[in-house]
Automatic annotation (TrEMBL):
This is glycine--tRNA ligase. Its main location: cytoplasm. It catalyses: 2 ATP + H(+) = P(1),P(4)-bis(5'-adenosyl) tetraphosphate + diphosphate. GO terms for biological process: mitochondrial glycyl-tRNA aminoacylation. Homodimer. Catalyzes the ATP-dependent ligation of glycine to the 3'-end of its cognate tRNA, via the formation of an aminoacyl-adenylate intermediate (Gly-AMP). Also produces diadenosine tetraphosphate (Ap4A), a universal pleiotropic signaling molecule needed for cell regulation pathways, by direct condensation of 2 ATPs. Thereby, may play a special role in Ap4A homeostasis. Residues 161-547 form the Aminoacyl-transfer RNA synthetases class-II family profile domain. It comes from Lojkania enalia. Belongs to the class-II aminoacyl-tRNA synthetase family. NCBIfam families: glyS_dimeric, PRK04173.1. The lineage of its organism: Eukaryota, Fungi, Dikarya, Ascomycota, Pezizomycotina.
Amino acid sequence: MAHPMTTKDGKPFDRASLESLMRRRLFYTPSFDIYGGVSGLYDYGPPGCALTNNIVDIWRKHFVLKENMLEVDCTMLTPYEVLKTSGHVDKFADWMCKDPKTGEIFRADHLVEEVLESRLKGDKEARGVKVEEKEEDPKKKKKKVKNITAIKLEDSVVQEYEEILAKIDNYNGEELGFLMKKYDIKNPATGGELLPPVSFNLMFQTSIGPSSNLPGYLRPETAQGQFLNFQKLLDFNQQTMPFASASIGKSFRNEISPRAGLLRVREFLMAEIEHFVDPEGGKKHQHFDEVKDVELELLNREVQLAGKTHVETTKIGKAVEIGLVDNETLGYFLARIQLFLLRIGVDPQKIRFRQHMANEMAHYATDCWDAELLTSYGWIECVGCADRSAYDLSVHMKKTGAPLVVREPRKEPLKIEEWQIDIEKKKFGPRFKKDGKTVEAAIEALTQDLREKLALDLEKEGKIIINVPGVGDGEVEVPKELIVIEKRTRVENVREYTPNVIEPSFGIGRIVYALCEHNYWTRAEDEARGVLSFPPTVAPTKVLIVPLSSHGDFKPFVRTLSNKLQDIGVSSRVDDSGASIGKRYSRNDELGTPLGITIDFQSVKDNTFTLRDRDTTKQVRASLDEICNSISNLVTGTEQWAEVAARLPAFEGQEVD
Ligand SMILES: Nc1ncnc2c1ncn2[C@@H]1O[C@H](COP(=O)(O)OP(=O)(O)OP(=O)(O)O)[C@@H](O)[C@H]1O
């Protein structure tokens, strides 16, 4: 369902024309296109790659460099055991429902959402409220929810629909099935009945090696590789806590019905941080003060449960203080995520943070906020920021026995009063024979409360009875000759704990697409002239070099300029095609190239060049050195165009088409 959006200059946003630009200019293209393509798989072309790389580069500087994070690059192929232990084999799933007649498959929550949204739209039309929606890619037409018929709904039904939509991510399969029945939701294309939702695991399964006896999966997130290396990373960090690891790489999810272009794909680039923190002491962050005044738009869980979508602008310091955001470390990262998104050119009006509802949270999370960006597809989660508690390290430690813990010398030794058990080993073996080890393990596992109770039994009865499944009838009697239970004081000099993990997880493809929507507009004088106003730091190519014509006199200047820009690390492209200057600039406006240098006859005479700004189309004229110096400043963000324009003489050139 399209959402009404406006461009930066206040005009209605036209998704079809942006998507056609992005394909035409090879930002991305369907993979295996000449074989008919496979949905949810896309290739990036040169500008898409450059844009992605620049965003990743800023991500590394903003997070990895700033916090001295430990970057790792782990394998994508992951053995079954790892993902079974992490819970992904059993729980990493969405709900799908099938049309038994046509064989079509729908993702249940998305279907309910689309149908209810389209009915609300029909209701608005019936009430005479104008709703704008541009047609999407004609290839997807068949899948689109049809029948947007102008039918007025009861006011109470409108309210019910809105409430359901506000918490659509909170329903499980049974509840979705109930909603489908209650609101008569069927195959939108045929009106056919659908089977009740069933769970569908999103991981791609494979087998590793020729014998197929090592089953595996393509990883659905980069996180597990980071957890499994925790102990080595802690050693690398000289046992110092807190610290964070980071990883950038592809992840794979077999999405049920991938649509919405780059927003929901089956193979995508993720950039993830695992920040390991001591769970004691409120998960403080040492740099929290630096961000406490950053204001975020927060949509909290209670508001959503009440069926509303109202956001509060709140300073992150306040949000943590009142407990809305659980702890400083989580809050620190929410603020840093927002600063990153703004730094790469996301529209500040189109960012919000939405808290997950209880049912919506992944199986490992205790609190989770998504950074959502407003696009023509609605609010889209682009970064998830979850408190995964000690879940992952604990389950992997339990399964493998590897010590995924921190051991810290205590400043003051800790005295612990506890019930300790001694076993009379010499007598224990002959008494329990082959079951000795099992009985011993059951005794070791007794809780403090039970030990206290059993100490009394031992004193009174001269024996204890404990449960040992699998030995005899499950109850084992241990006489007092074999066991001592006593309250003693233990002194602990080392503290051992499993760190908690705060995980910001970025979907780079979603960010790239949202950034394109936020920065796309068309020139007032000509709707067909699209512009992508990326900040110079992220723009795929920084400078277009345009000789006035193919005249031989310009060639040495083209070479000098290209070399000079290369020397200062600025990417440039030469367009010496026969097209008019205006057309050449226009082509590069579509690619988001922020700066253009024209070489004309004046350049041949006095070695001066014009420098053009993409957004204002204004030009200045200056010497080679001054031009390169200004470019360098603009590209690194140390100077803005307005400052350059104020410093250098204006050039009143014309862009003739
Ligand atoms: N199918 C996908 N295509 C592109 N990016 C994705 C996809 N699934 C997840 N991501 C990105 O990875 C990030 C972290 O993944 P996470 O598991 O939190 O997503 P998710 O909650 O499963 O997303 P959704 O609910 O939209 O499916 C998301 O914020 C998003 O940017």
